[in-house]
Amino acid sequence: MWYTKLGFKSANSTLFHPLPPVKVHEGMFSLNLDVDEVYTLTTLMTGRKGAYPDPPQSKPFPSNYKDDFNIRNPPFSEAPHFADQTGVFEYFVNTSDPGDHIFTLRQVVVQRPITWASDADQAISIIGDFKWVNVTITCDVYIERPVNGGVFIAGRVNNGGIYVRRSKGLFFWVFADGTYRVTSDLSGKEVLMKGMSGVRARAWHTLTLNLRGSSASGSLNGYPLWENVTISETSHGWAAIGTHSFEFAQFDNF
Q1: What is the pLDDT of residue 181?
Q2: Measuring CA to CA, which residue among 159, 21, 16 is closest to residue 85?
Q3: In terms of Cα–Cα distance, which of 129, 132, 141, 159 is closest to 105?
Q4: Which of 52, 92, 221, 240 is the right S-S partner for 106, CB 3.0 to 4.6 Å?
Q5: Closest to 69 (Cα-Cα) out of 38, 95, 39, 91
Q6: How far apart are CA 77 and CA 126, in angstroms?
Q7: Locate the Glycosyl hydrolase family 59 C-terminal lectin domain: which residues (predicted)?
Q8: Distance CA 140, CA 206 (A)
Q9: Cβ(237)–Cβ(158) under 8 Å?
């Protein structure tokens, strides 16, 4: 039996080039595949090469973006455009919520994994354009862990991947014990401002972070909570959401 190899599309050409057939012996065959090529194999003498549209052109991430995660039966578990660096953020159906937060994004890793890199102790998912400077980030948050649970939203985050532990930026944290903290690092050690917020676990709250030039301010449930914090660590970077530790927490209306 002969398998007819119809052709390949090279990275430098839009033409399909014919290739010699591949001989099959005793039900097995071998085929050397090169990178940046598309192959079509068929057992039919009437077979034809496949067709597909050109990929979309690269373009910047939109400057105005929102997601309410309202997908009843998602064909995948992770929300588009969010890039989890530590932890796992998945679509979640919150059946215990009778209001506007039935469909949410939930951080679901509750124990630090065994890793081969210096991952952060916090769960974090980044989104947006690394060149972003002046941004307003708002997100509804729901702390599930009482007493010592916590979540954050952030802007101008400058590291990911194996370097995520050393991420700098502007991080706006709220905790289940009713406190808040503003830090310039993901680890939460470089505290720029802190105080009482009244936030509690198992209740929805809206966080808003404004970054303009070298100054930052934050609001809770539509009311100013802190302002006039100087941004000195980073001049641009991604937006992010995350948790204080490996814990359940939910996010909505990002």
Answers
A1: 98
A2: 159
A3: 141
A4: 92
A5: 91
A6: 16
A7: 84-254
A8: 4
A9: yes
Q: Which two tokens stand for residue 163?
A: 């370097």
d(CA 36, CA 13): 11
The span from the CA of 83 to the CA of 161, in Å, is: 10
Task: Note the residue count of the chain.
Answer: 254
CA separation for the pair 187, 191 (Å, rounded): 10
Q: CB-based burial of residue 110 (10 Å sphere; 0-12 exposed, 13-18 middle, 19+ buried)?
A: middle
- pTM (2 d.p.): 0.80
Nearest residue to 171 via CA among 186, 193, 158, 150: 186
- Its sign, for the CA torsion 193, 213, 225, 154, is negative
- Fill in the amino acid letter for 125: S
**Using CA atoms, how far apart are residues 85 and 87, in angstroms rounded to an integer?**
7
Q: What are the tens digits of pLDDT across the range 172-208?
A: 999 999 999 999 999 999 999 999 999 999 999 999 9
CA 1 – CA 88 distance, rounded (Å): 48
Question: What is the DSSP code string of 25-41?
Answer: BTTB------TT--EEE
Rounded Cα distance between 200 and 149, Å, is 9
For residue 97, which of 142, 146, 67 has the smallest C-alpha distance?
142
Question: Residue by residue, what is the 3-state secondary structure of 203-226?
Answer: CEEEEEEEEECCEEEEEECCEEEE
Label residue 14 by pLDDT band (50, 70, 90): very low
d(CA 29, CA 2): 10
Phi, psi (degrees; rounded to nearest 5) at 3: -95, 120
Torsion angle defined by CA atoms of residues 209, 213, 214 and 219, in that order, rounded to the nearest 10 degrees: -20
Residue type, 172: F
